[in-house]
Amino acid sequence: MKNNQNNKLMFSIQLINVFIGIIVTLIFGMIYMTIKSNELKGVLLGLLIVFGIFVFINLYKRIHNQNDIEESNIINTIELVNEDNEIIKQWSIQDKISFLIGKNNGDNEAFLDLNESIYSTLVEDNHAVLNYAAGTWYIEDLSLDSGVCIQKIDDGKKYRIVKNTPCSLKRGDIIFISKVKLLLR
Fold this sequence. Notes:
With 185 residues, this protein is of the alpha+beta class. It contains two helices and eleven strands; from the N terminus they run H-H-E-E-E-E-E-E-E-E-E-E-E.
């Protein structure tokens, strides 16, 4: 749904830019027809061409750069890895909005079930929750003791999350549920 809204917005912006270009061209055309001097007409035509090239190059760069940034931050999967960074399990989160990280038992249903990890004894049943809002994933620490840490891709530093306070996530960040390592891809 977000992609559809972005596409509509980009189309609207492009349509507005086309109309602005048509209006500017008509104004320059009217000025061009009323000027008698050929030298002045040549200078005006040259300025119009340079201005048009500059505007289109700038617009092209802006549109393509924004698409690259948006696509690079989309988180599609979460991977459970061991100490050697070998993937043990993988979960697709493309169609999710919110889910629990923890352990499944008779009363609890966690989407990211960490029972397969060697550190599962350190993981609580409801350890953390991930929520998707406004195009960004957020994590909240629900644990009593162990806590949740994040190693941010931006600076490589490890941060402990404050309980019940959402923390934004990006593709490439690493979540530590106690000693369990989860890669965001």
